[in-house]
Write a structure and sequence with these properties.
N-(1-d-carboxylethyl)-l-norvaline Dehydrogenase, domain 2; binds 1,4-dihydronicotinamide adenine dinucleotide; binds 1,3-dihydroxyacetonephosphate; 2 domains; alpha/beta; NAD binding; globular; G3P_DH_NAD-dep
């Protein structure tokens, strides 16, 4: 069975490498025919995943039809592009097993990856692959554990074995809302964590912010029907810890640049920037307080400086912890 992957960026390529190294045949689709050609020739993706060699059983293509042989297709494009990708590919995708790999909340609908897949491809079996994993770690075959969220547990188990390898260990859940929101909101908190460190406010401040940020992630997730235990699992707390503490994270590095008042390459995918805005809207709809997310949205939009954002948080009325 050939696994298809749409999106030959860092994560799509890394998953292709990991699955192929685990013995699966993979078709990796890149939207740029020139990039696909270079990848086929050099067996590398130097722009997005430098230093990694593509195994022979990864076939790189820019032809959509080449994905027709794959019953299971991973969607590895950024969140704010997913709706468009599903629209472009609708004829080929509907009815297949579609695994969303994007972390975020769609700005125009407030939906997560599974919600976008369900809306665009009602006859597909949607799933979400999320959790703590840097593309470079996965591609190097380092041990990684992720959450696979699938509503139908029978289909979920089949997919879990198909996408697990000796180094890539998938844990199954049917809590789609919890998995979607954990992965989406941790990126917003990672921007805040980076900003605090970048501005020189210290590790104690970062820990406070990450913990209070986690409290608001849990509040919004509960309001959206997620199970509390999902938020303390790999897709929530696990990914929050990783992203708020590692320079490998683009969201964290973007936060660092805000804190240091440095510029940041706008072509780099920073999912938490748009998701902060989307989460503020969602929180307002549910009457949930999200002060950290709200100041991140202000920071990203240039409405507040890091100093003003910290003042806003520190001047909130004192309250009980829980
Ligand atoms: N890089 C990482 O370590 C991880 C990334 N993710 C998630 O995976 C998703 C994708 O991220 P990355 O691969 O890292 O981003 P990236 O920036 O490395 O690559 C994005 C890819 O999507 C393609 N793309 C963009 N718009 C497209 C469109 N309309 N149609 C087709 N292809 C399009 C780009 O050409 C590029 O190949 C994000 O939601 C990210 O949060 C999840 C776990 C780890
Ligand atoms: O989702 C990730 C780690 O789990 C990747 O984080 P960044 O998108 O911040 O690089």
């Amino acid at each position: 069975m050939r696994i298809g992957i749409i999106g030959a960026g860092a994560f799509g390529t890394a998953l292709g490498v990991a699955l192929a190294s685990g013995g699966r045949a993979v078709t990796l689709w890149a939207r740029d025919a020139v990039q696909a050609g270079v990848m086929r020739e050099t067996r590398r993706n130097e722009r997005y995943l430098p230093g990694i060699v593509l195994p022979e059983n990864v076939s790189v293509t820019a032809e959509k039809g080449d994905l027709g042989a794959s019953d299971t297709i991973l969607l590895a494009t950024p969140m704010q592009r997913l709706s468009q990708v599903i629209g472009d590919w609708h004829g080929l995708l509907d009815g297949r097993v579609l695994v969303g790999c994007a972390k975020g909340i769609d700005l125009s609908t407030g939906l997560g990856a599974v919600g976008i897949i369900r809306r665009g491809c009602p006859n597909a079996t949607p799933a979400l692959l999320t959790g703590p994993s840097f593309a470079a770690d996965i591609a190097r075959g380092l041990p990684t554990a992720l959450t696979l969220a699938v509503a139908d547990s029978g289909k979920g188990e089949a997919l879990q074995s198909l996408l697990s390898t000796p180094a890539l260990r998938l844990y199954l859940t049917d809590d789609i809302a919890g998995a979607e929101l954990g992965g989406a909101l941790k990126n917003v908190i990672a921007i805040a964590a980076g900003a605090v460190i970048g501005a020189g406010l210290g590790d104690s401040a970062r820990s406070a912010l990450v913990t209070r940020g986690f409290a608001e992630m849990q509040r919004l997730a509960a309001a959206r029907g997620a199970r509390p235990e999902t938020l303390v699992g790999l897709s929530g707390l696990g990914d929050l810890i990783l992203t708020c503490t590692s320079d490998q994270s683009r969201n964290y590095r973007f936060g660092l640049s805000l804190g240091r008042k440095e510029s940041f390459d706008p072509s780099v995918t920073v999912e938490g920037a748009a998701t902060a805005r989307a989460a503020v809207d969602l929180a307002a709809r549910h009457g949930v307080e999200m002060p950290v997310t709200s100041v991140v949205a202000d920071l990203v939009a240039g409405r507040k400086s890091v100093a003003e954002a910290m003042d806003t948080l520190l001047n909130r009325p004192l309250r009980r912890e829980i």
